[in-house]
DNA sequence: CCCTAATGAGTAT
DNA sequence: TACTCCTTAGGGG
């Protein structure tokens, strides 16, 4: 489930499970085997995330860079009695190998799993915008990009060089909550609207880190408050528009619409998010 | 702008 | 067997 909150939780969990611990490092699937051999038997220094990028630090400034892509997963288990045999395509496995409690972590389906230098990590961070999950981030850096761009805000929100960590769910939901149409050009937004979106993302994504889910509905729109059935599908969080095509808007009852914006599905409410200029999405 | 490929696994047909 | 997906990089107009 890879948006920024997922990576942040993973960094936290990997840090708790492995920082300061001697680990065995392997690649049961084989595709990371050479690099794993270099790290095997070393002590993990820490783990950190930035946007959707995850870095696990080993001695001598060697960093494992992980990007989960569309469907990667990193299962971290702490305090287990036994480490099971790998199941499926495990690209990277970490297992504690000292006197402390036993933990292991299995990485599958990642777009990136590679060994980088600190310089290479810095190059990635240099093309990554402010991350609403991290402390002390400067939203004006993102605003300077948004206000100069005629690209649709729905695309800018997912441009990781503008803003780091927002994916398809958070973009659809923050646009709904702030009543902004996805096709609205960045350079037509007012700074107050941008600031409201940023502040909302800070809150929403912090809640995502706490719960591990993307939950975006306000208290008055929860299933309990409205007497409606809870969302039944996949990921579990309550949302306003994401993947709710053709269903009634929780706020106004209009049918939620869908379209494609920069190769990704976008969802919005035509009444709560009135069109601005363009009608290309209907 | 458009298209395609690349990661796994689950669910549908 | 196909099709989906909380992503991104690369190539061609």
UniProtKB/TrEMBL annotation:
Keyword Lipid metabolism: no
SUPFAM superfamilies the record matches: Glucocorticoid receptor-like (DNA-binding domain), N-terminal domain of MutM-like DNA repair proteins, S13-like H2TH domain
Residue span(s) of domain FPG-type: 240-274
Assigned EC number: 4.2.99.18
Keyword ATP-binding among UniProt keywords: no
Residue intervals of the Formamidopyrimidine-DNA glycosylase catalytic domain: 2-111
Any one biological process term the GO annotation gives: response to oxidative stress
UniProtKB keywords: DNA damage, DNA repair, DNA-binding, Endonuclease, Glycosidase, Hydrolase, Lyase, Metal-binding, Multifunctional enzyme, Nuclease, Zinc, Zinc-finger
Protein name: DNA-(apurinic or apyrimidinic site) lyase
Pfam families with a match to the protein in the record: Fapy_DNA_glyco (PF01149), H2TH (PF06831)
Cofactor: Zn(2+)
Catalytic activity from the UniProt record: 2'-deoxyribonucleotide-(2'-deoxyribose 5'-phosphate)-2'-deoxyribonucleotide-DNA = a 3'-end 2'-deoxyribonucleotide-(2,3-dehydro-2,3-deoxyribose 5'-phosphate)-DNA + a 5'-end 5'-phospho-2'-deoxyribonucleoside-DNA + H(+)
Top-level class of the enzyme under EC nomenclature: lyase
GO molecular-function terms, A-Z: class I DNA-(apurinic or apyrimidinic site) endonuclease activity; damaged DNA binding; double-stranded DNA binding; oxidized purine nucleobase lesion DNA N-glycosylase activity; oxidized pyrimidine nucleobase lesion DNA N-glycosylase activity; zinc ion binding
Protein family according to the UniProt entry: Belongs to the FPG family.
């Amino acid at each position: 489930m890879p948006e920024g909150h997922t990576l942040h939780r993973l960094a936290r969990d990997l840090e708790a499970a492995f920082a300061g611990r001697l680990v065995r490092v392997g690649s049961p699937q084989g595709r990371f085997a050479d690099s794993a051999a270099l790290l095997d038997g070393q002590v993990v220094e820490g783990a950190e995330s930035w946007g959707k990028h995850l870095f696990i630090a080993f001695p001598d400034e060697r960093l494992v860079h992980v990007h989960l892509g569309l469907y990667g997963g990193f299962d971290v288990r702490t305090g287990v009695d036994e480490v099971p045999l790998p199941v499926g395509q495990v690209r990277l496995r970490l297992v504690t190998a000292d006197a402390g409690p036993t933990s292991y972590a299995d990485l599958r389906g990642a777009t990136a799993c590679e060994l980088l230098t600190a310089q290479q990590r810095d190059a990635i961070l240099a093309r990554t915008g402010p991350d609403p999950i991290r402390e002390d981030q400067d939203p004006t850096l993102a605003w300077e990009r948004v206000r100069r761009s005629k690209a649709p805000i729905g695309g800018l929100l997912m441009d990781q060089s503008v803003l780091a960590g927002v994916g398809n769910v958070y973009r659809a939901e923050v646009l709904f909550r702030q009543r902004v149409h996805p096709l609205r050009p960045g350079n037509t937004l007012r700074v107050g609207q941008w600031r409201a979106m940023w502040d909302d993302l800070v809150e929403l994504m912090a809640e995502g880190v706490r719960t591990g889910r993307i939950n975006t509905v306000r208290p008055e729109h929860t299933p309990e408050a409205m007497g409606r059935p809870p969302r039944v599908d996949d990921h579990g969080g309550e949302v306003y528009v994401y993947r709710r095509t053709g269903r009634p808007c929780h706020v106004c009852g209009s049918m939620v619409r869908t379209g494609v914006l920069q190769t990704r599905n976008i969802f919005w409410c035509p009444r709560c998010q009135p069109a601005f200029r363009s009608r290309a999405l209907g």
